[in-house]
Structure formats: C-alpha cells, structure tokens
Amino acid sequence: MTRLENFISQFAGKTVSTAVYDLQTGDEILIGADVTMHPASTMKVPVMMEMFRQAEAGLLSLDERLTIFNSFKSIVDGSEFSLEEADDSDKILYARIGESETIRKLNRLMIIRSSNLAANLLMERVGTSRVDAFIKELGIADMTVIRGLEDKKAYRLNMNNSASARSSTHMLRLIVEGKVVSKEACDEMIRVMLGQEFNESIPALLPADVKVAHKTGWSSDFFHDIGIVFPPRRKPYVISLFTQGFPENDESQAHDCMAQISKMIYEGLTKEGLGFV
C-alpha cells in the first residue's frame, strides 16, 4: 500500500476520498475518488462558473446589482423557506435585507466566506437548471446541482446536489487550464478562490509560499476541500478531498485528516525522490 492508503486506512468507519491531477507530469492520484457525496458548499464553484458564462454571453453584468432577500422556493412543492443566519458562515447580508449588492461582490462572499445567502441569490439570478446544464456541457461526470442551500424539504427526500472527488478535480482542472468560458474568466475565478478565508484543510500544513485557490464545504458529517495548489517553480496541481463520517461536533478531526493528506501529496509531488511508497 502507498503511504496515503496506509494513512487513510486508519480512519475506520469513515469515507475519505482523494483525487489529484498534476499539471507538471499528467499523473493522477485516485483513492476512493468515485464515491458520490453531498458536495456541501463545493457546489458554489459551478454556480460561479455559470455566472461567468452568462456574463461572457452578455446575459448579465458582474456589476449588476441584485436585491438582497431571504425567501426561496423549495424544489419539492414550491413552498417558501428562509435561510437561518446562525447556520450561515457569513452574516453580513442578513443585516442588509432590502438593500442591493453587485453580482461580483455576492460571488466573492459566496466563495471566500461561503455565504449561503449570496449563493441562493446568485442561483435565483442565473438559474439552478443552467448551473447543472453547464456542468454537463463541460463533460463533468458524477456532479449534479439541482437545488439551492438549506432546502430542508428536499434534503429530507434525498433530493440533493451530488459530486465526487474525481468530478471536482476534473472541474478545477478545466478552470486552471483556462477551458471554462475563457482564459480571462478562469483567471478571475482563480483570483477569487485565492482569497478563501477558511484554510484549515488543504493549505494548513503547506509552506507559506504556496498559494492555494480553493473552496471548502461542510454539511452534517460531510467535510470537503477542493483546490488548485501553486507550488513555487513548478506547474500547479489540483486536489479534491471529500470526507464523510467525522463527528459534526469536532470538525477539527476532519480538517486534520485533510491537512495531513494535503501535506503528504505536496511532499510527494514536489520533493525529489520522496514519492508515495
């Protein structure tokens, strides 16, 4: 077994999926990479991609202002629901109901602070079905976006978004290769993700001069982190870590697991002769 497999095998009763693509060598690391899970807030990346697609097509402007509201319709029966401020990692927009904000700023809040309210507002504007259609148009398998955040009726009926580590790595690979919308749009998406404020997992144990453009996700006992890692003096690599089964009341266990995996992968890819065996 590889070092990674040995490390992951100690987490009995938990699912730890890893998918890595190295742009320097074309090598892949795939461990349980095709297990589909609730993607939590990692699904905000395809929302951002569709937003940039519509901006490129002239269907919206990033400087367009959207009214901030907190009333959305369940995909189950159209009944209304609101997001709970206490359950959102960003609180700013809840004090601004009735005001407006630019699409550009809402996107930034959705990615770097994982604002659920910003995500739902953007999905209302671009259309959830269009987000899912764009995923399919890009050829990304095993990833589906069918609803916004906190649609609890849908959640109870298992009407959920889904993704895998492999599909998330495919998505980010397309971004870092400049193949989503345009090279300029991809560069801007990367710049947004470089501002991520939750850095307990993929970046946590990496050297200070390593930049990471990434998006975290957490829901119930699902803890994920997907990102593009930019080591100095080499091409970047893409890494997606999906986990399920770590205790909800002690998220540090999931973060520590992912941080250790990220460190091993970084060392294996960048330190000559180390490898994974």
List the helices and strands and how they pair.
Layout (H helix, E strand, L loop, with lengths): L2 H7 L5 E8 L5 E4 L12 H13 L8 E3 L4 E2 L6 E2 L18 E3 H10 L3 H11 L1 H10 L14 H5 L8 H12 L6 H11 L17 E9 L2 E9 L6 E8 L7 H19 L7
Antiparallel strand pairs: 1-2, 1-9, 3-6, 4-5, 7-8, 8-9
Helix pairs in contact: 1-9, 2-4, 2-5, 3-4
pLDDT < 50 stretches: 273-277
**Helicity level:** 25-40%
Q: Which shape, going by the Cα principal axes? A: globular
Examine the coordinates and then state which fold CATH places here, giving the name of the CATH topology of the largest domain. Beta-lactamase
User: What number is the mean pLDDT?
Assistant: 96
Structural class: alpha+beta
* CATH architecture assignment name of the largest domain: 3-Layer(aba) Sandwich
- CATH class group of the largest domain: Alpha Beta
How would a textbook summarize the main sheet?
5 strands, antiparallel
Major sheet: order of its strands?
Answer: 2-1-9-8-7
Number of helices: 9
Radius of gyration computed on alpha carbons: 18 Å
What's the domain count?
Answer: 2
The tally of strands reads 9
Element string (H = helix, E = strand)? HEEHEEEEHHHHHHEEEH
